[in-house]
Amino acid sequence: MSNPVIVVHYHEAWLKGRNRRFFLRKLSTALRQSLQGISISRIEQPGDRFVISLGDGASQEDAIARVERVLGIAFYALARTVERSMEEICSAAWNEIEPLQFANFAVRAKRSDKSFRQTSLEVEAAVGRHLLEKLRAQGRNVSVRLKDPELTCYVEITSGPALVYAKKNPGAGGLPANTAGRMMCLLSGGYDSAVAAYHMMKRGAHLSFAHFYGTGAMPGESSLHVASQLARQLVPCQFHAKLYRVPFEPIQREIVRYAPENYRVLLYRRMMLRIAEVLAKRDRALALVTGDSLGQVASQTLRNLVAVDAASRMVVFRPLIGTDKTEIIATARKIGTYDISSEPFHDCCPVFLPRMPALYASATDLDEAEAGLDIAGLITMGLRSTTLEQFHYTGGEIKSEISHPGKFSGKKSIATA
């Protein structure tokens, strides 16, 4: 294929009216950041699309692998670029579809540059007629089908060259990264919270993560390495991420010591929310995100969720609230977090699990259960022992560093991973 380019189309950004320029600028930035390290001669924006021209020696496969993860893209295609003449367009369309096997086809043309003499319908008719003649000359039993064709040849007339392609691929969808503000996600090692994080990233939110882990696990079983891998898998969606790592077992032991057994898990979750809220404010985040699905486990009944939320003044978003486990796992497979979450690890929540967990607690019930706890002291305990792992995605690689946040520990030490 001569002069291949990657054509990128968006959808939601087009609907943003006067704010469209802001969203397209963010999408352009995301494309450039994602493609760092790959030879790109230029990225242009003729009409309602981006056109990426690859440089000498650039790998099409690597470039496409990067593009397909960029949020905000409706679909993309590897296209031929030709001069804006019907003869050149017809020739390119034939070269595009001739090697392919299909029983019926259609041509779809889009003329974003109205100075081109033929209309979209005229282009479709001319190209379709040319292709049908060539196919029949080869003795191929192929027909034109305008509705639900087996193959579609696309022609886009831009202010630059014409673009021709016969295969378009679905993009990640959603909105461009970092367009909706900051949030703090409570990230466990399981399937749910990573999928919840991805859903919010797709809506343009920039996420930091708080992971609460237990101690005393066998080597290699700690949830820390799983949470770190999950954050690493998600960071290319937004290019930078923070993972706050909070040891939680000392706090759990205090809850077990002073609180009623049937409320333990709910009190764990309230303490996690309180600590995550402090970390969120430190990062100027405006909301919390969790992977709760209504009724999935005892702590996620409607009354329990409401009772837990009462511990935090910050809004809690639950993008998976109406999904089931099958849907969650399907998304985890799609975004590459399933295998990571399937690894064995030591989860802190089942530690000291009550024999009969409460199903219908109220905020008042949990307030009374916490009466013997030093809430402020437990929050401080968690914050002082928190470590921070930061991830940066650049040039197709992910780098990380671990530090103790100086605001909480008083000292800062950095180790490059």
What does this structure look like?
It contains 14 helices and 17 strands. Helix 3 packs across helix 4 and helix 7 (249-258) packs across helix 8. The two termini are 41 Å apart. The chain has 2 domains: 4-170, VC0802-like (2-Layer Sandwich), CATH 3.30.2130.30; 182-416, Rossmann fold. The chain has helices spanning 20-34, 60-67, 86-97, 120-137, 191-202, 223-234, 249-258, 264-282, 302-309, 325-335, 338-341, 363-369, 375-384, 406-409, and strands at 4-10, 40-44, 50-54, 73-82, 104-111, 143-144, 151-157, 162-165, 169-170, 182-186, 206-213, 240-247, 287-289, 315-317, 387-394, 397-403, 415-416.
Quickly describe the structure.
With 417 residues, the chain is an alpha/beta fold.
Shape: elongated
The CATH topology of the largest domain turns out to be Rossmann fold
User: Biggest β-sheet, characterized?
Assistant: 9 strands, mixed
Give the count of structural domains.
Answer: 2
CA-atom Rg in angstroms: 27 Å
Strand content: 15-25%
CATH homologous superfamily caption of the largest domain = HUPs
Give start-end ranges of low-pLDDT stretches: 409-417
Structural class comes to alpha/beta
- Mean of pLDDT: 91
Named CATH architecture of the largest domain: 3-Layer(aba) Sandwich
What is the highest CATH level, the class of the largest domain?
Alpha Beta
Number of helices in the DSSP assignment: 14
Distance between the ends? 41 Å
Number of E strands? 17
Percentage of residues assigned to helices: 25-40%
